[in-house]
Amino acid sequence: METERERFLAGFVVVLIPCAARTVVILGLVGRFVGLHAALALYAFDLVLVFVLGRIAFKVLPGEPVGLIMEMSPYRKPLAKNVLVKTWGRTKDFIYIAFPIIIAGSVALEALHLSGLMNYIVNAANPLIGGLLGLPSETGIPLIFGILRKELTLILLSELIQLESLTVIQMIVFSLVTMIYIPCIVTIAACAREFGWKKALAITVIDIALAFFLGGLAYRLLSLVMAT
Q: Which whole-number Å values give the CA distances from 63 to 6, 59, 196, in the listed order?
C-alpha cells in the first residue's frame, strides 16, 4: 500500500473479515444448533457489510486512490514437509498462546463466581446485553473475555449456561455480535503498530458500537419475522 490512507482503509475492513476464531463461534453455535444455512447467511451478511463500509470509508476519507501492482510468484506444488511445518506452526500458536488464555479465563470466571463479583458485572451489563440484544445477562461475561481470543466467547458461554437453552434468535444475535466486534487484543496491537493508538482505538470503538447496533437491530427484526 503506497499511502497511509490506503493502508488504513485496508486495515479497517480486514478486521471485519471472519477469521478462524470467529468461524469456531459461528459454526459451533449457529451451524450446529440452527443449521448450516444460517451460518452461511452470517458469512454472506458480513461480506456485504465489509463492502458497504469499505465504500463509505473510501468516500469519506480524504485523498485519491492509488494503483497497486504486485509481483505474483510462480505456483508450485506444495511439499509435504512445508505443509507439516506450517500446520505445526499454527497448532503451536494455539497450544502455547490460546490454550493458556482459555485456562486463565476459566480460572478468572470461577474466581468471579466465588467472590460474588459476577453478579455485579451481570447486573451492570444487563441493560445492554439483555435490553438491547435480548440475550441472557450472563452472556456479557464471554463477550468481555472475547477481547482476548474469540474462541473464549463460545467456551466460556458453554460453561455459564447450556447452549441448548438459547433460542434460535439469541444464537444468531450472539454470533453476529461476536463476528463483528474487534477480533482480539492481538489485532488491536497490530493496528496500533501500523496506524498508531489513536486510529487503533477508533477502529475498536467503531467495531464494538457497530456490533451492538446491528445485534440489537437483528434481535428486533428476527423477533418480528419469527413472530409472524
A: 9, 9, 19
Q: How many CB atoms lie within 10 A of CB 126?
A: 16
Angle (CA) 119-121-122 rounded to 5° is 65
**DSSP letter, residue 136:** -
CA angle 184, 160, 132 (to 5 degrees): 65
Q: Are 27 and 20 in contact (CB under 8 A)?
A: no
Measured distance CA(184)–CA(19) in Å, rounded: 11
The three three-digit cell numbers of residue 115, written as one number: 467472590
C-alpha cell at 16: 471485519
Q: What is the pLDDT of residues 190-210, one digit of tens each?
A: 888 888 889 889 888 999 999
pTM for the whole thing?
0.81
**110: amino acid identity, one letter:** E
Q: Which three cell numbers stand for residue 1?
A: 500500500
For 59, other C-beta atoms within 10 Å of its C-beta total 7
What is the domain partition of the chain in residue ranges?
Answer: 4-65+95-227
